[in-house]
Structures are given as C-alpha cells and as structure tokens.
User: Fold Tissue factor from Oryzias latipes.
Amino acid sequence: MASVETLLWVGVWMSAFSITTADDNSVPKAENVRWMSLDFTTVLTWTAKPSSYSFTVQYATDGDDWTESPDCIRISDTKCDLTEHLIPYDMNYIADIQTEHLEADYDVENLPHTYSPKFNPFSESNISAVEFSVTQLNETTVCVNITDPLTAIHQKNQQLSIRDILKKDLKYKISYYKSGNTRKRDFESPTSTAEISGLDPGQSYCFMVAAYIPSRAKANQNGALSLEQCTEGDGGILQELSVGAWVGVVFLIITVIIVLVTVIALCCRNPNRNKSLQSTQLSAPV
Ligand SMILES: *[C@@H]1O[C@H](CO)[C@@H](O)[C@H](O)[C@H]1NC(C)=O
Ligand SMILES: *[C@@H]1O[C@H](CO)[C@@H](O)[C@H](O)[C@H]1NC(C)=O
Ligand SMILES: *[C@@H]1O[C@H](CO)[C@@H](O)[C@H](O)[C@H]1NC(C)=O
Assistant:
C-alpha cells in the first residue's frame, strides 16, 4: 500500500516536473537586444519566440535606480521607443527587458530578463543624410547652405534639430570636385552655412555633405552621405550633356549631312534622270 502511494507521489512529482520544465522552455527571453537610433530617435529592439508572455522595459543610467518605461509595460511588441526618456543625452543608459505574464495579477516569479548593451545617445545616435543648397556668390566662390536634420524631440512646442542637441560638436564635411576630375577636396565647416572659395571660374563643381562629429569615437563620427548637387559652369548646356546626348547630337548632324548631300546630288543631275528618280521615290513606300 505504502509503495503504491510512493509510486503515485513519484508520478505526480514527475509530471509536475515535466510541466514546469516544458513551461520553462516556452517562456521567451528577450534576445538580440539592440539599440537603433537615428537623429536621436532611439528604439530598443529585441527578438523572442512567439508566446503568450509579455515584456516590460526598464532603463537606468550608470549606477542609478531603474525606471519603468510607461509605454512599455506588459507589451507584446518586441520594441520600445525610449526617445523621450534618454535625457540628458550625454549619459550611458542601460535597459532591462523583463519577461512577464500578460495579466497584471500574476506576481513576478523567476521569469527571465535580459540586459541591453550600454548606449549613449549623444555619442552613438546615427545622423541621417542632410539636404543642402549651393548658390554661386561670384566666379570663384559658392555658398553651401545645409539644413540641420530634425529630431523627433519636442521642447517648449519646438521640434529640436540635431544642432540643438549636438551644439558646437556638430560640424559638416563638404566634399567637392570639379566636373570631369576625380580628385575630391574636403572642407570642414563648423556652421550650417559655408563659403567655399578658390574655385576655377566657369567650371562646374559637384558637392556632397555629411554631418561630422569629431568629438565622437571614430566609428560614430560620420553621418550618412547626402545626394550630390552640382553647379553649372560656363560651358552651360554643352558641359552638362551626357554621353547619350552627345551620341544623339552626332547622329543628328550625320543625318543632316547625308540628307543635304543627297538633295544636292539629286538637284545636280540632268532633268530627265531627276524626274524618273522622283517618280520611283514617290511610289516607294515610306
Ligand atoms: C548606425 O548605423 C550603422 C550602419 O548602418 C549600424 O550598424 C548601427 O547599428 C547603427 N547604430 C544605431 C545606434 O542605430
Ligand atoms: C567672391 O566673394 C567672396 C566672398 O563674398 C570674396 O571674398 C571674394 O573676394 C570674391 N571674389 C571675386 C573674384 O569677386
Ligand atoms: C539657407 O536655407 C534656408 C532654407 O532653405 C533659408 O531659410 C536660409 O535663409 C538660407 N540661409 C542662407 C545663409 O542662405
């Protein structure tokens, strides 16, 4: 009798054990935790097996207390926008992603959690490609006018630009080259408008701009490269023509010459020959 009872207990214990282990295996843990940050819009992302569990994100600066991110409590999503919370910008932040039951009335048991890598928005947020305009001031000088990219951060009803955050640390690298010449020159501008002088008069120049933050670590110094903008040289339309256009122009000129030669040749023949040729030409399908 006693042995049957023992066996029963062992059975119960074993099935309970197998249930817990199975449960344990299906509890998702946040993995591949990454910071994605562009122009100071910062989102924490992670991956997890699909399940009926949720996640709560906490963040802290070095050695400080944890704060729950109000928008990321028991979320089923695997990303959390922390843009508004990582202030001041020039601090190292760390996040903790806790796996939780969907319903709030479960107490926190030993569910898994994952720490994020450290992240400092001021020195690690990527900077997008800028827009800019180039105006010719005189024959040898142009003005490059750069628009500082906007962030998603608002302060006092004003949307901040990357200049409002990076201030003096923000510089721009302007690369330019003379049309048809591969040698690039670089100009570093501490402001968002720059005058570039010493250009060859009458030449077309092409410009590209990228944000440049020399105070950062090498890997994070350069913003994305802008599209290219070119000035028109004196050569005007001739200089701007592409190879295709040139082929077109040459083809057109050759056609005109052939037509002229044909017409002249026809006119200079004797009238009888001319007439018969004309009639055969007229009857031929065009
Ligand atoms: C910045 O951009 C690089 C290259 O695209 C990427 O590898 C990196 O993860 C980005 N960093 C952040 C914080 O988004
Ligand atoms: C062109 O303009 C720049 C700045 O306005 C000036 O310093 C330079 O002397 C001018 N050059 C010529 C050739 O007029
Ligand atoms: C630069 O461009 C902006 C907008 O395109 C304009 O408001 C500003 O006056 C320009 N600045 C200069 C110095 O040309």
